[in-house]
TrEMBL record:
Gene: PEP2
Example of a GO MF term: aspartic-type endopeptidase activity
CDD domains (alphabetical): pepsin_like
UniProt KW Acetylation keyword: no
Residue ranges constituting the Peptidase A1 domain according to the UniProt record: 33-358
Top-rank lineage group of the source organism: Eukaryota
Name recorded for this polypeptide: Vacuolar protease A
Record-linked Pfam families: Asp
Amino acid sequence: MCLSGTISTAQIFNGMDPFKVSMLEKPHKVALLTSFLEVGTPPQTFTVVFDTGSDTFEIPGKNCTTCSNQQIFDWDKSSTYKYIDNGDGLWLQFATGTGVTPVNSTDPDWTMTMWQVSDTVSVGGLPVLDVPFYLIDFQSPAFSADPFDGIMGLGTAPESFFGKLVESGFPALFSFYLTPHTVGKAELTLGGIDHSKFNTPMIFSAIHPNAGFWTLLSSRIVVNGKTTESLSQERRVIFDSATSNLVFPKNLTEAIYALISPKIRPNPQVPGAYGIPCSQLRSLPAIIAFTFPSTSGTPFNLTLPSCELNVGPFASNPSLCQTVINAWEFEFDAIIGGSLLKHYYSTWNAGNGTMGFAKL
């Protein structure tokens, strides 16, 4: 089913009240959940996407000449701003975009150059002092179309905003209620779990040690009740809140599609994307279940329902509909994004090294 839940109070850890951050959708080609935060003293407001697939926080600086569609940070107006001299700055390349179009890791369309600073950052009314982040000097044109100013990484690294929050004594966990856009009221809870958002058991799984991301080990993938030898091999799966689709190695992508329909084919006009005539997609069953080990030792499934298969028509060919799994052109970990996460209330706990999921 493609539904969701209700509202109330969050569980309290370490005697500290969790902070709730309301998320919103902006007009865009995909359902993209963003929120507001404030940087500096006095505060300057920015719209960001929360990204569990990265550790860094970056917003445009006032020197950026390619950031005309975004709000820019003026450090001269902040009394708490500090410059961090770490050499020649940072060049950053993103492995996935925020939309549904595949991104190759060598694609120059998704790059930034920036330099490190620190300042006070407030999320959901919660101020954190001396947060290290990056000011963008240059961004490639692909970022200009994004309906947000910056990216707030929620990775596990101690130098991230989340790491600084934990360093200040806050509980080392956060939770996402990533609803479908027809439901709304999506929410990030910092430091707690809002049990009113779900009425099913929450199942926990240990994150893969030293993976550098929010990564779980999956033992198999089942498609419409069937699997294959290649789909039954253990693999690492990264959970990325800022990626809309699923992104798998090419051989894995095609093994899954082979169990759905032979008519799902690569779209040569959009490398890495697949499609099928829209007229043949509407009633096509495509239930994809990913099996993970729970902390109790019992395997459990996270399931992508059939309604997520259809991403929508390709702009270059409206009679052809894009399907939800994109392919890497190289061997890398699998990535699960918002298409699946919005069907579960999820908890990300760096303190005990687990992720938890409750079906909505």
